[in-house]
Queue: 3 jobs
Job 1
Amino acid sequence: MWRIARDTGVLDLNSAYSYLLWCRDFSRTSVVARDVLGHPIGFITGYIRPDHPQTLVVWQVAVDRAHRGRGLAGRMLEDLAVRGVGAGARRVETTITPGNEPSHRLFVSFAQRRGARIEREVLFGEDLFPTAHGHEPEILYRIGPLA
């Protein structure tokens, strides 16, 4: 997962250790897609918001470069949504930077397939990120209600 995230060139890269912990502690709200040999080719990390237990937060979505353009991200998101709804989730939240058009398309098409509304607002402005290279604002997408 760490390698896939790194190779996207756009995701904030977390430590390899954090991805291992994520798989252990949040496996019910995350997805790892594997090829026929069992190697990871894509993943979605997510969690249920502790103060809003009907909200599934999608944190990172990544697909290995060799497997992009085949609808894998959409299938993983649908799988995660079905499991989330089964566990009581009624909405999905995610953040997307303005320049991340593939993620924007992924979540807009997800909402359209489910007949759900999308509300958007700035969650974290760029002034909150302590980086010399700058960081675009993170736009919160609230999608729901989920059927």
Note: The radius of gyration is 15 Å.
Job 2
Amino acid sequence: MDQSHPSTSPRTTSSSPGLSGSILERSGVVIVDKPAGMTSHDVVGKLRRIMGTRRVGHSGTLDPMATGVLVVGIERGTKFLAQVVTHDKRYEATVRLGTSTLTDDVEGEVLSTASPEALEKLNEQQIRDAFATQVGEIMQRPSSVSSIKVNGRRAHELVREGHDVVLPERPVTVHSLEVGEVSFVSDATTDSPHWSAQISVHCSSGTYIRSIARDVGEQLHVGGHLTTLRRTSAGPFDISEAFTMEQLAEHPQLSLHLDDVMARCFPVRDITDEEATNIALGKWLEPQGIEGTYAVVAPDGRAMALLEEKGQRAASVFVARPEGMS
């Protein structure tokens, strides 16, 4: 599941030693390898204690059952994340074909179970062909237990209250979907016969992997749901850079300082010391014909702000280093 706006709260003093240095020295992002069983909000709560600040916010929610890349902003990094749109994500997942659930994953109530005869009629090539139909620019119905709002309420809240929620389809892009091992499981170790498929997905933000599992199961007339989900990248942030919660508890640290993450996520325009001073004071710069949002960086490497050009002005949409902040 995805949502682009980070969750934040006002900064207060914490008893945790956390990160050392000034606010700007402590500002940046942490790439967390979220464990299964924790909500994204749980991760934020723990990091507030670990980092010694209340100004912590995440971007790009992961379901409790999911693991992998969760990007978390610290101090000024929370406001920076509000400007970041991670256009693509990568996932590794396991799909079980033979059972549909209320939540389209293993944690939901079972809605239907295919007969052994129906499952035995399937073959590996049919399954691979069904997954192939999910690649490209497609219309996808989000999971009913997503965080999408319906009349001001989160869809998953309405489902848990017993409401029947069917969200409208919307366009998403699945850049690639690779199917790995496909196996038929029918032995004493399983509760019912089923097919299992390992998939790797590269998709646009807003794509629901659980919806892919559901739709493939429906296409094959046997039902389907996710049993595992791991996000391996979100935009420019990769799982190879991620810290576990245990590592962070032992050694609180940033993955990327604010200077580094701004330059990674946006094009860079070099500016003079005088221009850097003007930006810190809230002034605008002369435009240079650059489209979209970009970072401006002082001669000493300090990322000062994110700018957008409109007419005769290149104005700030986020100031990393306002005047008076150290």
Note: The chain has a mean pLDDT of 89.
Job 3
Amino acid sequence: MRDKYIQTAESVTEGHPDKLCDTIADTVLDACLRSDPAARVACEVLDTAGKILVAGEITAAELPDIPALICRTVREAGYGGSNYEVEVITHDQSGDIAGAVSQEEQTGAGDQGILYGYACSETDELLPLPAVLAHRLTRLLTHARKTGAIRGLKPDGKAQVSVEYVFGLPNRVTSVVVSCQHDADKDLEDLRQEILECVITPALRELPPDGDTELLINPSGRFVLGGFEADTGLTGRKLMVDTYGGLIPHGGGALSGKDGTKVDRSGAYMARYIAKNIVAAGLAEKCTVSLAYAIGRAEPVAVDIDTHGTGVYSSAVLEQAVRAAFDLTPSGIIRTLKLDHPMFAQFCNYGHFTYPEAPWEQTDRTELLENVCRAKEAGVSDR
């Protein structure tokens, strides 16, 4: 381990054009699941000046009113009565894929994929500190806009935090970047002071900025034109914001807009669930779980547990325990994590792993994992 290094993570607000697309996609998914828990949904969204396009494969007992969902989501994101055109292009899931997924005895994976989950003991959320701080900044930025604590804020915004580690432990914040859209008549210096007082200071309460911390608030100057009126957003373009801030590997599959048969989403949630339970059980201080699937196959083709040298048990014992304690098939994951319930839009902003009420954030398998590990270790010793 290096004696000293810096790790950086970013986050964006729910009004960022990419996250607005994610929210629309998950709102469509929720509406489909509300009427049909077995719905197959792969929803993609693009937004740009004057246009929002929803496309994808949707097979459901009842198709929702997607234009109405779009308008409601845009309004709730803070864009009010923006003038834009809506286009919806959807069709049923491919029969070949549907046949491979919906088998008589077991649900097969909706696609191939490599999924990673991670947990570490350095925060209460069992997430890396830079990711926690970055999400806290954007949450507070949105809160300040919605409550009027900072007047003149608009929905689009982002934040980035760099933390220096010494011998593996967070030591100090080296830099903070906050960029936020604002009204044309907002004084930039007033805005910077308000962001410092209402957002940065409370967000970094555990590790406050020091005299050498670089604080960059709207470093490019004015940020009046923003959102999807000035930029272009796409579903799945904020993968690192959604997961671990780029601090661990990512398989490349997006999360939002996909039902539980798509292992891009369900496998990533299960990998996080496993890693969090391993760390919460005290079996490791940090843990990366990787799962790999083949389309149409129910069981993963590979399971790997890496505790980065902090594990109480070997990776082989942990892998055996994980396979025994968790059902890793798509149908098992859906059942365990309730992924056929309409709940996804509420978890798609500020990181999918920052919500303690989310099913994949529960630490209810710790005792089972400990018991299985002991049994597996005893079995290895007996041989």
Note: The chain has a mean pLDDT of 92.
